[in-house]
């Protein structure tokens, strides 16, 4: 295992959040430029790629069963870079949206490899460490893109699209370091054994978990404004706290796992619940920052474990399918979070964001207790 191969695999993690973070600070300037277009169309620039990612993730399974992973990955990286950069060169909102759809398709060809390659190249001991680092780099990439995009937007809304040039060094790292013959998946008909069904169980739990976590992003700004806790700038800082502590969690994941042992999952769920309770009881912005930090740290501590469990005991020819399925549920959860929020408000006749945070806190507490009792009675780690 060469160091360059490690860097190449980890570099893939930088790209996933960048797809959104690179252009979101420029939305106001885009709205001014495309003043004749509906604001809804401009907002789609940030989220439209997510609609294309889910089917593309599933298509990546088919491609990986017929071509070497290196070829599929290089095609995805090249398309990601080109479609991302071209977005800043167009003057038609519909052409821009079409490019964002292509970006989503290409990202779907990249996302599952950031985890499946770790599952293939590293044994169980080092795999957890690499998954933690992958999560941290994912969050760091998002933070870097947000900060850089904010400064570039001061010059022109077109400049943040140059951030997608980061796909080029990743492309050349994969081209040079990843063996062409490794990871070439066999067709399902010739694969050794059936596809492990536990992957679907992990994916379903990941879906539920993602729906709960992603209620923060679309609600934070309104929550602060409606409760007199801060403006959109403070909302940006609060969300940045989830990103910052999420990045930190990856670096200390092996130590966190060692300290918590078999109680890792219930401990993290209790911390998430505490974070949402801080939000619910918040009377000043400091409580919001504390809550966001707790949620970000525990949430991003759990994510790598889902991928670890999904790929555990999975034959290499099925690893891409396993990670693609789990990855798809994250983006599906992101899409379903606003619907979940509306359902909770309607069901309990309380549409306030503060009540939503309380509901999520109670849900995670109940989940933590259930998992804890399961561990105590079965006497084995999750």
UniProtKB/TrEMBL annotation:
Residue span, Major facilitator superfamily (MFS) profile domain: 5-379
Gene Ontology CC, one term: plasma membrane
Source organism of the structure: Aminobacterium colombiense (strain DSM 12261 / ALA-1)
Main location: membrane
Transmembrane segments annotated in the record for this chain: 40-63, 72-95, 131-155, 161-178, 199-223, 235-254, 263-281, 320-340, 355-377
Top-level taxon in the UniProt lineage: Bacteria
Annotated compartments: Cell membrane
Name this protein carries in UniProt: Major facilitator superfamily MFS_1
Coiled coil regions in record: none
PROSITE patterns the record matches: MFS
Membrane topology per record: Multi-pass membrane protein
Keywords, in A-Z order: Cell membrane, Membrane, Signal, Transmembrane, Transmembrane helix
A molecular-function term among this protein's GO annotations: transmembrane transporter activity
InterPro entries for the chain: MFS (IPR011701), MFS_dom (IPR020846), MFS_Efflux_Transporters (IPR050189), MFS_trans_sf (IPR036259)
First and last residue of the signal peptide: 1-22
């Amino acid at each position: 295992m060469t160091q360059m191969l490690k860097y190449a695999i980890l570099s893939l993690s930088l790209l996933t959040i960048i797809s959104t973070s690179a252009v979101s600070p420029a939305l106001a300037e885009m709205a001014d430029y495309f003043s004749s277009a509906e604001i809804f169309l401009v907002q789609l620039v940030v989220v439209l790629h997510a609609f294309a990612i889910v089917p593309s993730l599933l298509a990546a399974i088919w491609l990986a069963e017929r071509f070497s992973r290196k070829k599929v990955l290089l095609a995805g990286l090249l398309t990601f870079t080109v479609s991302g950069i071209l977005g800043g060169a167009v003057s038609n909102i519909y052409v821009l949206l079409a490019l964002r759809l292509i970006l989503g398709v290409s990202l779907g060809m990249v996302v599952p490899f950031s985890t499946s390659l770790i599952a293939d190249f590293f044994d169980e001991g080092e795999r957890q460490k690499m998954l933690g680092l992958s999560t941290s780099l994912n969050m760091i990439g998002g933070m870097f893109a947000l900060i850089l995009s904010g400064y570039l937007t001061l010059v022109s809304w077109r400049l943040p699209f140059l951030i997608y040039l980061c796909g080029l060094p990743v492309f050349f790292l994969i081209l040079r370091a990843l063996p062409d013959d490794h990871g070439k998946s066999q067709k399902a008909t010739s694969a050794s054994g059936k596809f492990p069904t536990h992957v679907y169980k992990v994916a379903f739990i990941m879906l539920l978990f993602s729906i709960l976590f992603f209620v923060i992003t679309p609600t934070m700004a309104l929550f602060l404004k409606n409760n007199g806790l801060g403006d959109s700038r403070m909302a940006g800082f609060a969300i940045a706290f989830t990103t910052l502590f999420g990045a930190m969690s990856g670096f200390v994941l092996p130590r966190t796992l060692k300290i918590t042992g078999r109680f890792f999952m219930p401990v993290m769920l209790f911390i998430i619940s505490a974070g949402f309770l801080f939000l619910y009881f918040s009377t000043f912005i400091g409580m919001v920052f504390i809550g966001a930090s707790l949620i970000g740290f525990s949430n991003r501590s759990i994510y790598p474990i889902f991928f670890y469990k999904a790929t555990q005991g999975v034959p290499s020819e099925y690893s891409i399918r396993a990670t693609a399925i789990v990855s798809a549920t994250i983006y599906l959860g992101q899409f379903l979070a606003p619907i979940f929020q509306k359902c909770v408000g309607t069901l309990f006749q309380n549409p306030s964001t503060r009540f939503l945070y309380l509901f999520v806190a109670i849900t995670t507490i109940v989940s933590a207790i259930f998992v804890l009792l399961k561990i105590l009675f079965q006497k084995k780690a999750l």
